[in-house]
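Quick check before the chapter quiz. The format below is the same one you will see on the exam, so make sure you can read both the input and the output lines.
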Amino acid sequence: MEFGVLGPVVAWDDAGEPVALKGPRHRAVLARLIVAHGRVVPATRLVDDLWADPPDGALSAVRTFVAALRRSLEPNRAPRSEPKLLVTDGPGYALRTESVDAWRFEYAVEAGEYQAALQLWRGPAYADFADEPWAQAERARLTELRLLAVERWADARLTSGQAAAAVADLDAHVTEHPWREEGWRLLALSLYQSGRQADALAVLRRARTMLVAQLGIDPGTALARLETDILNQVVEPASVWSAAAAAYQRTTGARAQLESTVGLLRSLAITGELGEVRRHRLAAITAAEQLGDPDLVARVIGAYDVPAIWTRSDDEAQAAAIVRAAERVLPTQDHPTMRARLLATIALESRGSSAARPLEAAREAEQIARTLDDPAVLAFALNGVFIQSCRQAGQSRERDRIGAELIALAERHALPAYEVLGHLIRLQSACAIADHTAADDHAAAADALSARHDSPLVRVFTGWYAALRADTPNAYRQAATQHPATAMPGLDHGLLALALAAQALRHQTPIAQTADYGPHAPWIQPNLMIAQGKYSYAARLLSHAATPPPGLFLEAHWALLAQAAEAVDHQPLLAKARSALRSAAGEQAGAQSGFLTLGPVDAYL
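Here is the expected output.
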């Protein structure tokens, strides 16, 4: 069964035929459950969402709608058997599926498959529920992501020499969305690369007129710079790059090209194009393995020494595949430098793991690196040690030591990316002990390095730190808009919801019940039930609560469990949570991330 929300809400059976969903309220129930992204929507919430003034019997009507939907979605289900798609869970209902066009659209954008992603759209998202409050945030998010995909696809076409073919689509894009400065820039650039300099300048003048007259703002620096470059007839870097790349491809073999590809991926990662990196990195490793040259495989894996600050993977399946490839080739490598790089890769790509092997790999990589006269390898190994340092609470001082060594090493040997990493690590460590003066200094140093070395993702972390300092819902929401949601899914998914919930819990204000908490849901869910007065249900959840995984939110997750356990007097879990948090006494729960805080750890002890 496939579900479509990128246009009117529809469902298709396995043969691709439309499924009859009956009336508009049946489709509204289905759409509301899809918006919830697999989470349970209480029946009472469905009543409130379906009717501005619920009539008598509204709850019974919702049950009738659900029953009718189940018959439509699973027509062959045996009588009295449990439904598999639209399930009853506790106080409400959930749709258990991954087959939603909006989600496939997001995955395609993340993978850089922009044309395929855009072809999934049949009209405005949730078109038949445009005025419903429960749909508006999701509609806005998907619409923004679609506009981003249009622009990224156009940019890719320009880079690949298809400027003329992109003109018509970009012209339609800016006509429909005239406030998108990036759309105007790409349209002007496509005209210029097509040899239409006068038209490109006319587009830039039209953009300036529109922005000033209708929005009251001056064009940004990117538009102004492009106009200056066109007037000066600057040689386009893209054309220089294309010519050089073509020459390189003609004169080198597959092995050299694969190694060069890793260098390009490193540059893409540092400049923020993480979706493109995820799309190509594993493919490069697989291609190297197919050539049957273990030394080449080791170099392709080990050369990707991009500094990593976040302790949750953006793509766990791909990370696991890279670890397996590194483990396969490790026994063939005797050179200490290559062994250290492979071991550091295993440690980095195993972020969030509680297994023994990644920690052993990190320690061995550091041990080898300290015997070498290679500061880059030592920095790489220390990064692995940092990633594996989040297995228990209260490790901020150890991480601060790693950050300080990275800064000193990077300053001596001109390794700016690792210097940034060191400052971000020390920013997090300073937040853990509420030393905001030191954290401010490290944030300023990281921003300055980012500006000099074109590392835009640094501002994601310093921007979230600024939100932590401001500690208001609007500040957190602003921080969450600073970069595309597809860039760092391992960071983004559920983060804003968790930050807002943490702020609400500390200030004793209502928590959002239907927000997407992503991977943080298991630890916030008991608190949501408590906020609804469902103490018995919260206690049942706590009895089956999973142990929080290693990571920068380890203390935050334990603090959430401790708070809920204390509220319902769940003594076994409360004792377990306090035992886990005791080593972080004197620190701030969650602040180790530099993104949010649940207040002093001591309050949970």
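If your answer matched, good. The first strand starts at residue 2 and ends at 4.
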